[in-house]
Amino acid sequence: MEFLEQLPALFSDFANPKKRIFFGYLALSVLIALGWLTLVRKTSIAEALRRIFDRRVFFSGSAIADYKIFVINRIFTFFISPMLLSQVAIATGIYFFLHSLDFLNPAAFTGVNQATVVVLFTLTLFLFDDFSKYLVHRWMHRFPVLWALHRVHHSATELTPVTVYRVHPLEGVLYTLRGVVVQGVTIPTFYYLFGSAVSLYTVVGVNVLVFIFHVSGSNLRHTHISISYWPWLEHLLISPAQHQLHHSVAERHFDKNFGAALAIWDWMFHSLHLSSGEGELVFGLDASEGSSASSLKTLYLQPFHDIFRILRRRVRGFYGLAQRLMTRV
Ligand SMILES: [Zn+2]
Ligand SMILES: [Zn+2]
Are 238 and 145 in contact (CB under 8 A)? Predict the structure, then answer.
């Protein structure tokens, strides 16, 4: 009964401007897609609407799996939300650690003008958060144990805004911890250096830079509407088409465009792929990864099986090496 009362909370992300699938951002994404298709691609309004609300995409097996995973993962989130406590623990620990350092002077910059501190804090938090997303995403593709989890996201053969939730719960935990570390480091460091002048520049309770990212169509990266930017801009910001390339099964697109909002990390670390000159894309896992199955049982349980196999192989390899070394002695 108590669970039934919590039911509306499962869908609260649609009413939360901090979340990408907030209904306001979704509505703006529809308008942007409509503008792109009619003004740039010169399609009729009727054709544009048909492509935006394509039934074959939204009622596909892949999309239906997305919706189910969304609900299951939201239930899971209820049980791990107490983890937020760890952010306070990290922040407090770092704050006192900084105070213990003799060579640093607490509140050394308290004289700095408040507006400068707010701009600096807002920008630092956004940059650090976006870079940490790039890094963790890159690791997800680099390390087999993490790829076993991340392949759930890549198993989508159709992209809808809900695909952003198509992640294994353990990947969700890793991303939550990432956010905890970013905030747990940035907030106490700024408080230590600038004192009480620290505050975030927000719009509807969201970091203004995150807000700009969402109102400019962040949802469109998980759709079939291939909006690209000018090449110079795709060096700075990830366009929807660039993230769609990240989901492509074509080998030339592997390990490209890990970025969330900014493309500068991909540019700096040689994983940038511009979207111009690309034809129709096929989304999903490549044939060597097995099928892009949408069975929930496979999506939730296969990663545990794969991780167990990888770790067993590593342990055996380690034992073999140890035995060879022992026999030499
Ligand atoms: Zn990925
Ligand atoms: Zn994606």
Answer: no
pLDDT tens digits for 205-234? 888 999 999 999 999 999 999 999 999 999
- Specify the residue for token string 């199955």: 293
3-state secondary structure of 203: strand
- Cα(82) to centroid of ligand 1, in Å? 27
Angle at 292 between CA 166 and CA 214, to 5 degrees: 30
If you measure from the C-alpha of residue 8 to the centroid of ligand 1, how many angstroms do you get, rounded to a whole number? 30
User: For residues 39 and 318, what is the distance between their CA atoms, to the nearest angstrom?
Assistant: 60
Q: How far is the CA of 231 from the centre of ligand 2 (A)?
A: 21
Instruction: Give the model confidence (pLDDT) of 171-196 as tens digits.
Output: 998 988 898 889 888 988 888 888 77
Rg (CA), the chain: 22
Q: Label residues 169-184 b or e (16+ Cβ within 10 Å = b).
A: bbbbbbbbbbebbbbb
Sign of the torsion angle spanned by Cα atoms 116, 181, 266, 226? negative
29 within 8 A of 224, measured Cβ to Cβ: no
Identity (one letter) of the amino acid at 40? V
